[in-house]
Amino acid sequence: MSIMNHKKSQLEKGTSQEMEYKFKISLFNIMHNIIQNNLCNTLIYCVLLSIENLQLMYYPIHPVIDFLWDNKGLNYFRIILRYFQYNYLIDQGVTIFIILLYISFGVMVIIGVIFFTSQYQLSQLKYQEQQSGMLIFTFKLLSLLLIILNTVLALPFYNIFLATIYCRSDSAAGADLGCYEGIHILHMIVAIIGIVLLIFFHFSTTLLYFDLNPKSKFPFNGYQSDAEYARMLFKFVTPFLIIFNAPGTYNSEMVVLFGVGDLILLFSRYNYPTGYNNFIHFYKITLELIVLWINICVIITDFLDTGAPDDMGLLYLFVLIPCVVFGGLYAFKNILKESMTFSIKNLKNEEEADNYLNTLIQLILDRQSPNTKIKLMGVLKLHYVNCTKTGCACKQLISYDHKKEESIKEHETWMKLLASILDDIITDEKFKENARFKIFYSYLCNDELKNKYNALHYMMKAEDTKNHTLRDEFCLFRFKQHIESEMQEDSEKAQDIDVNSIVFFQNQLVVLTNMIQKSAESHLEFWRELQEDHPNILKLQNIGLKVLHQIDLCDEGYQELVEINNNNLNLLEFYNAYLSMVVHDKEQHEQLSQQISQIKKTIYQRKQGGGQESKITESQETIIITMSGNVGSIGIVASCNNEIQKSLGYPASELFEQNVSKIMPKIIGDQHNQLVENYMRTSNSNIIGLERFVLAQNSQQYLVPCKLMIKVLPNLEKGILLVGFLKPLEKLPGTHYMIYDGISQQILNVSESMKDLGIRVEDIATTSAQEQPIYTFGNLFKELGDVLNNTLNQNDQPLKNQVYKLEGDIYTAETIIDVQLFKQLLQSNIHDSDNKKMGGSVKDSAVMNYSGDFKKVKVKLELIEERFPLTDDGQPAGGSIYHTIVIREDIDQEKVNYGKSLIKQRLDESKHQINQQQSIDEEEDKQKNFQSSVDDQEENKQTKDIRSALEQSKTPRQIIYLRYLTLILFLSTLALSISKLVLALQQSILVDEGVSAVRQAHRRHSLMADINLYSRYLHLTSFGNYASSLEGAFKANISVLVDKLQVIQFDMIEFRIKVESRSGLQIDDDQYDVVFLLSNNETKTYGNIFNDAVFAYITSASSFKKATLSQFNDTSNSSSVSKNLFYVVENGLDVLRNGSERIADKFYNFYYDQVDAQTSNAIIILIAALVIIVICEIVYVPIFMSIFKERKRLISYFGMITNDDIKNLIDQGDKFILDHITKFKSSDDINQIEQPQQQHIIESSLNQDQSQDIADSPKQKVEIDQRKSLFDQTKEKHQRIYESKGGTHYFLIFSFIFIGSLLMIEYIVMYVLEDQSISDAKLILDHYLYISRRASIIKYNILFTLEALVNDGQPRVYMENDLSKYYNQKVYSNEQDLFKTLTYTYPSSFDDYFAFFNDINFLNVCEHITWINTLDLITQSFIFVDSTDNFTNYTFSSSELNQECNQVKGGLLTKGLRDAIFLVSLGNNELLATYSNLQESLNAFQIQELLRKYILPTFWENNNIFQTCFYNFLDIRDQVQIYNFVGFVGFLILVFFFLWISYIAKVQAGIQQSMRMLTLIPDDLIDKYTKLKEAIEYHVLGIRQQQQ
């Protein structure tokens, strides 16, 4: 597709090429508006360039380059430069890095939102709609933002985005970001989006933010070289190299690349021409030379200065900068000087031509300066010497006195010289494919030579070049918009007619005509389907809906046209016929008919009153033709209204894409394209915008007198278009028109009125090819022909002066037409030529055609135009002179007036008789039918009410029920889903609490076992069984353990409160018999609740920290320490241990039951969901069935109309299409069509009379039987339509059942998953119970062994149980239960745990445990670690512990933890069985303690891994539940709101449209069929009840 729109589109809709074209035009449009509203001036742009250059200076002297000069000044300079970009800041930590990243991203997003929002708003502007102030402000803001982004923000933004994408873990920010994992992925996505937006805007601005117009005030107008692309690439590569070389590994290579990049940048500027703003151009070069010199100095320092860094290089750097800058500028300016020494013929390439033109433009624009004028005169003289053109402007300029003040004419001459030079360049073979030169020529034509159409032609030629670029296309687009706005401004200033609106109206009228044609065809399709014996109800519904939609579209199109012109009779009459014959909207038809009558009356009154004639552009009979003025398609008709068929006989489709010369006489048509080309080349015309007389040529080749006005359409959407307003003139009696050749006297064309004189255009065409033409001016006008043939008058006078005399401003001649002589010549010609070939048929035909009373007619000739053939350059050529004349007959005006008065009298008499008869008939009808008239009015009112109610039908009750039911179903399913999610999350909380409660409950008596153990150690130490040096270690252990026990006790109280508040059960309300030691060595038992007993236990154990060993050895038991020791040992081993274990079991049982109870909740939710869904399905189906039955019933009412009436409706539609759509009929066709219609009308009236006779005759019974039969037929057809199979209700019902089934399946699946989750939770609780017991069981097994040893080998008994054997058995039973749980399948979250569990239980424990390397686990195992050597030897290093672990009891731990547990239990039994004395047994007991040292921490590590996996399991489970809920809610929203609700709305629209379809039945048919009217009234009544 073409930017200039002068080519026919070859792109198919939806193709990639079309999408590319639309994107390109959209981008061009917004960039054009941004440039038009540019706020950046030269000063601001230079400041931005300076800041950008400071950013570039930082990189060659970057701190990472370690071989640079060691100087404080350089360091300070770096400090200044680093704050102009991000490179330094991004290394200041992750916080600043992220802030900079998201600030940069935010700026890009803001620019993107503003840019694309503005683009969207621009695309939504309607025809001729002005831009809003907000949109203009947005463009102004974008103009600044894009320039700032393209200069000072590009480097920092590239830096931060590239640093995020290319993340380095060795950088300050990268170490904390965690490159390519975690949150850095999000940062990287943000950076990728940001850099894509940045590249898009950077490239778009670099590519399109410029102006080639030399007179533009844009700060960077002029040709944009490839240096801008190189600069853009340099900005991208530079920060990447710094990031890549962050460690400083490739410093030398990096500075070399910087230098090479700067050289490429400068060379790209050197080889291309400057811009029109030399200051900007050379300022850029100055900045780039400074950066290049810095790079060169750095490279020299790197490769040549091998010593230590010093200050000399820095000195040379600053000293030589002015020299480098001046030298570089001199080299660049020297190119411009050399370019002006060439002649045009010596220009070798486009770059030299560009430099030549740019320099010449600058010289011409600045020629007021004396130095510039001297240079310009030198160029002028050089051109004058080499110029070979005769009319070149250089010859005029040489002759001027340039010392005087310059005149406007001299300025124009300079511009003509520039145009002449540019024309020479364009015509040169080397540059003919250069689009830029043609674009510049178009600027010159429009702005300086004031020739916009020639400018547009050169723009079209520029686009037709093969090697035009995207920038060239943008220049074409911008300048086209500029010229179009100028044309519109000129049109508004002239206060001329709005050609845009007229053409737009005509185009939209064509669109409306096509829509109405489709609507009429759809109506016919509907009635023809209804005419079938078995109509398809589904097809009727679909066609009916399409008909209603098309009616609405036609109404919208009509209203749009009425807003433009509400008095266009063609539109009003056409739409009124559509309402009457197709839509059958009686009310609107009557209203529109009144409006049409009023307009016609106004026009008639204006004509009768002698008012001013309507303008040619406002007349209803005006032909409007739009013609192309584009290169390659001049004169081609782009559009035409249908008036041309009425006036000239050409169908509009026949002229489309044909040359407009088809409707012109040949002598004018042959010259027309050349005249248009001349106008486009010069923009000079005396006819544009003026009404003038012309002769058109109709389809029969006759001349038609017309008024013509031509306007140029100020809209370049389709290129240059010329709009012609052609209005045929009223035919005057006795007035004829003729065109003849003044040299050969051959008649070339005549008006149709000449047939009255016996002259036909067919005969002229027949004889025109003969050597001796018969139809000549001399033969027709004998007297004047003799004058022309008289040799005496063959003189040097103009031809028109030989025949005509000048009367005022008109050349006239009076003569006589000898018709009889002309007839004889014709007959003689026919006899001599054609009759020889075709016998007598031609002669007879000719005589027949020309028979009549011919006589001589006196006429007056008026010469209205003398036209000469034209040469190729538009100059008159010799050979022929074409005369256009008006022939006016000398008519007796008195006879004419008498004839007119006689006709008027007869018409008045006839009219009076008709009016008199009508008044008599009306009076009779009024007397006879007064009552019936009242009844008819009432019926009409009822019919109008019915139609109004059908068109404004409200929502049916069934639809309201469906909406409520859908809402209930949605809310119910949503509530159940929320309940299910809440229960699932509550279950997670319960399981979490249960695991925590079980863990803490078992840790409580586990800690009590440790306290009892170390208390016994203190007791034995006081008797010397252990070294007294261990006293401090034992006390410290007890202190730590007591503190932890106190914390756990408070946790257990919290758990107890939670449990009791949920269940109402009392966890530890039992009374426990606690034993106290009295001062007299007697014991006493008190009843106490468990919590109080535990706190007394904690208090007693806490007192050991300050006690001495002697107090533990008090045999009298008089000290408090002895009493506390007794309380701790006796109660801790019996009552409190047993109570703690019982409470732990209660907690476990409670949470297990709570989790198990979730199954019943899930079942309740499942049952509720299934019941609700089933109930809704049961209710839905009957409602839908009733809706579709109702819809079928409505459609079936059409079956009450008889086939005769349907045929009548079809005939009306066909007649409408024939009369108002298919307008391309000849007059003969019309006559042939009207005769059968008249015959049909006569037959209809006869049939009516006959039917009246029958009604009055005895045959009335026959008519009654016929009507009864007709009623039975319509009733049968109505029933057939109602009972026919069709529609989508079965599919809809199946769809709803399918959706309901999906919901059921979803809830069943959710229940299954929930049940599995509950089973997993119970299994986890079971497993965790057993692994939590392991530590306390093994501790008590060891502890009760020690107690038995202390009691001389006698086991401790509690509640008739040997506690040593009891815990021995518990070791085996717990291990058995634990390993039974391994037979079940656990969630995958526990895979790591069970891998570790199997490793430590069945393989070498020492190789798989990690607590040895992390002393934190040792602390968690409640074993004190001291700085001095103690009993447990915990000061060993990890390697020593590992070695000891493998050697304990002959490598017992290497066989697995399970075996070690069993062997510990067996070892305890062996100690008791082999007891001899306490000390030996205690020495042997140290092996058990050593095993305890490794087994217990392994338990804790195992439990910790389990807890980690457990919490991962809960997190995953909760996430799955949430995702499942979100997915299910999304599914519900999709189904209910986007599918189901929308489908209900579609069903509602369907039934409402079905009701509205009844409006297709005409009002008279509704009144005709009583049953039909009653049925419709029933529905209207139902509608009204709903409204109430």
UniProtKB/TrEMBL annotation:
Biased composition (Basic and acidic residues): 939-948
Region (Disordered): 909-948
Matching InterPro entries: Tiny_macrocysts_regulators (IPR052994), TPR_TmcB/C (IPR057352)
Transmembrane segments: 39-61, 94-116, 137-165, 185-209, 229-248, 282-301, 313-332, 1162-1188, 1290-1313, 1522-1545
GO molecular function annotation: ATP binding; kinase activity
Pfam families: TPR_TmcB
Keywords of the record: ATP-binding, Kinase, Membrane, Nucleotide-binding, Transferase, Transmembrane, Transmembrane helix
Domain TmcB/TmcC TPR repeats, chain residue ranges per copy: 484-601
Protein name as it appears in the record: TmcB/TmcC TPR repeats domain-containing protein
Provenance organism: Paramecium primaurelia
